[in-house]
């Protein structure tokens, strides 16, 4: 049995990924891929030894997966250390205007923002997005483009928070 030291050497900080469609083909690709997966599963169950049906379903699945990968963008975010996270939070405080709006909107104090998401998100993306050649400034420009919906910007923010705030699975014992 491996020692704790050996096991800890295999541990990596939590990461999370988001996948975004690229163009119209990217919008269609996820459902086509899911359809091909279902067809493949169905062929395995119902083919009763008909290897040609299974092989055809496997080919369709591979093509659908290739189309999905070609027409989508997956961004993986590494979890930030406490020091990195705390420095980012300190560098991107909520503005007085944002705080006043949340207070006026009767947002419960426990639910009020602790960061200015507008500035925090591109800064965090600049350091947390793996395999990225974009800087914080690049992300500021990118997120201001019309390529991103409000929901996608929120998803990016949540992915960073998720990667940074990950806890061990609840199924793990004490």
Widest β-sheet, arrangement of strands = 1-2
Mean pLDDT: 89
Report the span from N to C terminus: 20 Å
Largest sheet: 2 strands, antiparallel
Explain what this protein looks like in three dimensions:
The chain is mostly helical and 174 residues long. A two-stranded antiparallel ribbon has the order 1-2. It contains eight helices and two strands, in the order H-E-H-H-E-H-H-H-H-H. It has helices at 4-10, 23-46, 51-70, 82-91, 96-104, 117-128, 136-144, 150-165, and strands at residues 15-21, 72-78. The mean pLDDT is 89. The longest helix is centred in the first third of the chain and has 24 residues, at 23-46. The two termini are 20 Å apart.
How would you briefly describe this protein structure?
The protein has eight helices and two strands, in the order αβααβααααα.
